[in-house]
Amino acid sequence: MSFKISKPFWQALSLGAIAGSRSMAAPAITSHILSQHKSVAMEHSPLSFMQSDKTATAFKLLAVAEFVGDKMPTAPNRVALPALTGRFLTGALAGASVYKAGGGNAALGALLGGGAAILSTFGSFYLRKATVKSSHILDPLIGGLEDALVVGAGTGLANAA
């Protein structure tokens, strides 16, 4: 079954925003969608691995591990350079894959997804900190709410495909 990416610009931005909150969720969502709806444009591309069921499963497992790891007191700061770089890269991968699957320019999709991931990383970081401080709710509980938002957004993107 194939599908047409109707709004790659907004899908790349959305996936990038998701990567800013949970880095592994964006490629997990993208790979899940592409494994269910193969794109001819991806067949001979370096991004073709994103259409694999095995890739989708691996990214989903990594996303679940990240959901758990985020609640640990030893979790690294998401705005630290290594974490920020990872979020940029996963957002770029998701954005590039969406654009390529739609027959568009993967580099443009990578820039949109990666850029949105950087902005979302800082936005979600400071929003979470402010929410914890003002609400006096434990950080892991706020992180759980953040997870729910990511899952909801991912479900919306997957169902739109």
Spans of at least 5 consecutive residues with low confidence: none
- Tell me the radius of gyration: 15 Å
- State the total count of DSSP E strands: 0
Shape: elongated
Q: What is the residue-averaged pLDDT?
A: 91
Give a short account of the largest sheet: none
Quaternary organisation of the protein chains: single chain
Q: What is the number of helical segments per DSSP (H or I, 4+ residues)?
A: 6
| Proportion of residues in β-strands | under 5%
The SSE string, one letter per element, is: HHHHHH
Helix content, binned percent:
over 70%
Query: How many structural units, i.e. domains?
Result: 1
What is the SS-derived class? Answer: mainly alpha
CA-CA gap between termini: 11 Å
Signal peptide: 1-19
Domain DUF4126: 12-152
Protein name: DUF4126 family protein
InterPro entries: DUF4126
Overview of this protein structure:
It is a single chain. This protein has one domain. 72% of the residues lie in helices and 0% in strands. With 161 residues, the chain is an all-alpha fold. It has helices spanning 8-21, 25-36, 53-69, 81-101, 106-135, 139-160. The chain starts with 7 loop residues before the first helix and ends with a helix. InterPro entries: DUF4126 (IPR025196).
